[in-house]
Structure formats: C-alpha cells, structure tokens
C-alpha cells in the first residue's frame, strides 16, 4: 500500500505518460512529406545529394499506436496500475499466486494420498515415493547436504552408516521435522595447548590413525576427564546428544590434526533447521524415505 504522495505520483506520472504519447503521435501525423510540389526534408544533406526526408507515419501504423493507448487505458480501468486503485476486477498478483498455489497443492495432494497409509519400509522400497522425495530433497536439502546427499564439511554425509542422531525412521523424521542443534563446547581453555595436542592424538588413535603412544596415553586421561560424558568411554558417541562416534572414519568437519585441533580448541556449533513449517507431513515422510534409501543404496 503506497502512501498518499506515491499514490498520486504514480497516477499523475502514468496518465501524463499516456497523454504525452497520444500528443506525440497526433503531432507527428501532421508533418507533411510534401509542400506543394516540393519534397519536405529535415534539412540534412550528405554526400552533396543524399537528403533526409521528413514523411509522416503511414495511417495504418499510426492507428496501431492509437490502439495501444486505448488498450493501456482499458487495462488501468480493469486492473491495478494507478497507485492504490485496485481496478474494477479487484485482481492482485498475490491473490492469483495464492489461487495457483492452492490449485497446485490440490493436484499434488492427489499424488500424496497414495503414500499416506504406507509403512516406512514400504515407502523406502517404492520407486515413485523415493523419486518424489528426491525432488523435494533437491529443493529443500541439497544446498547443505549436496545434490547427491554426500554432504560437505559441517554438513553430514547421508549416504554412509554414520548417524549423529540415529537412523531409525522416527529419528530421521524428527530431524527433518524439528531440526537439530549440535554443540561441541570449546575445550581450549580447560586443556591448554599441550592438553589439546594430547587429546588430538588420542582421538586420532581412536579412529585408527597412526598416533604417538605416549601422547595418546596422556590424551586418554584428559579425554576421560572432559570428553567421556558426551562421546562415551569407548568413543562411540551418543545419539541422544548428537555426539559423533570417534572410532570410525566419518568426520563431520574433518579428521586432520589441524581440524581436530580447531574443533577441540574452539568447539563447534551445528544447526539443522526445522522443516515443520516448510514441508507438510506427507512431504516430510517422502524426504525421510529418500534419505534412508541413500544409506541403503550404499550396502552399508
């Protein structure tokens, strides 16, 4: 809704522009190409005898321009275009968009109804359900997890068997519906530089990487004091907290010494946004089916 100034500014500017076009057309139609037996010209001459003539528009062409002016005026009567005046049809682009979305939802609902009563395992095995889930995933999830679901640093790979919060149907559906907030608190101040180094080496040892035994042993003592509450005594993590398993080779941010040092020193904050208001329950179920089919396809 425009304020009073812009309301009248648009009205005056629009009407003045249309009237100016009409005046220009009817002014130019009076320009004659001939005066008596002489040919009218603009007075421009090139190469001694090349004269620029000044001839009026053909009448049929002029009438086409008149029709466009009539069309513009009729449009402004029926549709909005003059400030806050709605036009006699009351049409708005927002109204049309809402109607088109309602129509699209109604057509899509007919497709989704086939999957409403399907059990999770049936959805995962249904090619059409997985295909629709793949397209929804591409629209809502691919920007973080990648078009193939393999993720990126800070965004989980959905094609392996490493799950921060578990891979049951309910756990995956909850992640999509409500989102997740994973926090790794910074430990740099508590451990100190030497303690961070020792803990990094111990975490490398847990994951099967080559590690200095002495530093790893010292790191285990620090781990047992500060890290065991989340990652567990054996380092296999805790899905209830979203604490990752440190004994495999699946790394959310990376498993190099430099990245591990950064993680332990400064902590991490991960956020999976909730899609409760973005996707209906039917659509979320299809996305969950596609996500679980990605892991199943790997054979893990």
Q: Mind explaining what this structure looks like?
A:
With 300 residues, the protein is mainly alpha-helical. It has 3 domains: 4-78, no CATH class; 111-179 and 273-297, Cytochrome c-like domain (Cytochrome Bc1 Complex, Chain D, domain 2, Orthogonal Bundle); 183-272, Cytochrome c-like domain (Cytochrome Bc1 Complex, Chain D, domain 2, Orthogonal Bundle). The chain has 12 helices and 6 strands. It has helices at residues 4-28, 59-78, 93-112, 120-125, 127-140, 142-145, 169-178, 188-206, 213-226, 228-231, 257-266, 281-297, and strands spanning 34-35, 38-39, 41-46, 50-53, 180-184, 268-272. The strands form 3 sheets. A two-stranded antiparallel sheet has the order 1-2. It has a two-stranded antiparallel ribbon with strand order 3-4. Strand 1 (34-35) and strand 2 form a beta hairpin. The chain is elongated. Residues 32-39 have low confidence and may be disordered. Pathway: Energy metabolism; oxidative phosphorylation. Its cofactor is heme c. It comes from Elongatibacter sediminis. Keywords: Cell inner membrane, Cell membrane, Electron transport, Heme, Hydrogen ion transport, Ion transport, Iron, Membrane, Metal-binding, Oxidoreductase, Repeat, Respiratory chain, Transmembrane, Transmembrane helix, Transport.
């Amino acid at each position: 809704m425009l304020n009073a100034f812009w309301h009248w500014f648009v009205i005056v500017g629009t009407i003045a522009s249309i009237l100016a076009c009409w005046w220009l057309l009817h002014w130019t139609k009076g320009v004659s190409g001939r005066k008596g037996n002489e040919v009218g010209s603009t007075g421009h001459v090139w190469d001694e005898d090349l004269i620029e003539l000044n001839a009026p528009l053909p009448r049929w062409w002029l009438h086409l321009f008149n029709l466009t002016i009539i069309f513009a005026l009729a449009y402004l009567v029926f549709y909005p275009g003059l400030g806050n005046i709605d036009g006699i049809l009351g049409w708005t682009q927002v109204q049309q968009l809402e109607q088109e979305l309602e129509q699209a939802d109604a057509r899509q609902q007919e497709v989704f109804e086939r999957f409403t009563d399907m059990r999770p395992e049936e959805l995962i095995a249904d090619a059409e359900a997985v295909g629709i889930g793949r397209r929804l995933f591409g629209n809502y999830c691919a920007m973080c997890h990648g078009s193939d679901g393999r993720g990126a640093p800070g965004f989980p790979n959905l094609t392996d068997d490493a799950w921060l919060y578990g891979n049951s149907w309910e756990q995956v559906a909850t992640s999509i519906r409500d989102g997740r907030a994973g926090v790794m608190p910074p430990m740099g101040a508590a451990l100190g530089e030497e303690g961070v180094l020792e803990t990094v080496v111990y975490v490398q040892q847990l994951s099967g990487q080559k590690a200095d035994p002495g530093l790893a042993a010292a790191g285990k003592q620090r781990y047992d004091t500060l890290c065991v509450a989340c990652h567990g005594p054996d380092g296999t993590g805790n899905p209830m907290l979203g604490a990752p398993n440190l004994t495999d080779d699946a790394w959310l941010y990376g498993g190099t010494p430099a990245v591990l040092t950064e993680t332990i020193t400064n902590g991490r904050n991960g956020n999976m946004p909730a899609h409760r208001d973005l996707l209906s329950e039917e659509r979320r179920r299809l996305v969950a089916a596609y996500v679980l089919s990605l892991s199943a396809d790997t054979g893990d």
